[in-house]
Amino acid sequence: MRALLQRVKRGGVKTAGKAEAIASGLVVLLGVGEGDLEADAELLAGKIANLRIFSNAEGKFDKSVLDVKGEALVISQFTLYGDASAGRRPDFAGAARPAEAERLYLYFVKALAALGVPVKTGVFGAEMEVEIINDGPVTLWLDSRKKRA
What we know:
The chain is of the alpha/beta class and 149 residues long. It has a single domain (2-148), classed as D-tyrosyl-tRNA(Tyr) deacylase (D-tyrosyl-trna(Tyr) Deacylase, Chain: A, 3-Layer(bba) Sandwich). The chain is 23% helix and 36% strand. The protein has 3 helices and 8 strands, in the order βββαβββαββα. Strands 1, 2, 3, 6, 7 and 8 form a 6-stranded mixed beta sheet that branches. A two-stranded antiparallel sheet has the order 4-5. Helix 1 (38-50) packs parallel to helix 2. The two termini are 13 Å apart. The relative contact order is 0.30.
């Protein structure tokens, strides 16, 4: 499971039938890969909830999203599994099939919320407009398989 994590001053998502927004916190673009497990979702949820990427009074990364009482906006992003190493069109063979990806995406959302992070979401599989106002900017790439290996 892969997550592109951005610390934001605010974030939002719009689809044809839904709009969500958060204030200060994290936008999490989440990709589910072929072979990912619930353990991957739990690992990333714990890492994201407790990752110290918010600044303390001295400007050092010392606080988590929980510490600053931030929110998370989680957006499904199968393109994180795009492989553009050959040719001119990315190959998404590494992404999980839609039904399994949606199940694990929702599992991740519940796992993150269970840790105390208020979570809002986009709509799985929908075309979305995502607004991200970076704070810093701070952007991190997380991959559960690097921890699992």
